[in-house]
Structures are given as structure tokens and as C-alpha cells.
Design brief:
There is one protein chain. The chain is mainly alpha-helical. It has 6 helices and 3 strands. It has a 3-stranded antiparallel beta sheet with strand order 1-3-2. Helix 1 crosses helix 6 and helix 3 packs across helix 6.
Length: about 120
């Protein structure tokens, strides 16, 4: 739960956009809609993928951690890669700076809407 466990780009995103507490909660799955039993929307799924890919991750690992089937995973990875939010290196995916910006804005929006 400590911020020191987070990667440097994620720490940079936290410092730049001020969403420290919420982003750490998202990272640890505390207080987010999935923990409350609500259905996840498209943005929540994208945010979960981006959060999990703070280090290089394989498709299978992402699929199990984010709880998606293979078709959903392929669709989301293709979209996030096309938008420049994820970067594919060999057969692994990692979040880009644009992806961290998305996460910060997502945190701000959920804060604003009190989700």
C-alpha cells in the first residue's frame, strides 16, 4: 500500500496530477466500483489494464488479473495500443506516459462524480 512500491512513471503521474490517494486505491482495488459489486464499464476496464501494466505484462497475465475473457482482452489491448495508451514490446504490454495521463484524468473524473 505504500507509494514507494509504485513505478517511477506512475509516481510522476501522481505528482503531476494530484490524484495520489485515489490512484493508490485503484492500484490496490480498495474503494473502487468493482470492490462494491457494480458492473465495470469500458473506462474502468481500460483503467484496470493500464494500472496492471505498470510493468511489462504478458496477455495471459493481464487476462487473469483483470478478469476478462480472451476476446475482450484482445479487443481492449488492440484499442489501447491503437490509442497510444499501451505499448507492445515483443509479446508484452506496458503503459505509456499517455496511459498514465488517462489514469490521472480518470481518477479526477471519478473523484468529481464521487464514484
Amino acid at each position: 500500500m505504500e507509494i514507494t512500491k509504485l513505478t517511477t512513471p506512475l509516481q510522476t503521474a501522481l505528482i503531476n496530477y494530484g490524484g495520489e490517494t485515489k490512484l493508490v486505491k485503484l492500484k490496490n482495488r480498495n474503494g473502487w466500483s468493482i470492490a462494491k459489486g457494480f458492473r465495470r464499464g469500458k473506462f474502468e476496464i481500460m483503467a484496470e489494464i493500464l494500472l496492471f501494466c505498470d510493468q511489462q505484462r504478458a496477455k495471459t497475465c493481464i487476462m487473469y488479473k483483470v478478469n476478462l475473457n480472451y476476446a475482450q482482452l484482445k479487443q481492449n489491448l488492440a484499442f489501447l495500443t491503437l490509442q497510444g495508451l499501451l505499448l507492445r514490446k515483443k509479446d508484452k504490454y506496458v503503459t505509456t506516459e499517455k496511459g498514465y495521463r488517462f489514469l490521472s484524468l480518470f481518477v479526477q473524473l471519478t473523484d468529481m462524480l464521487n464514484c
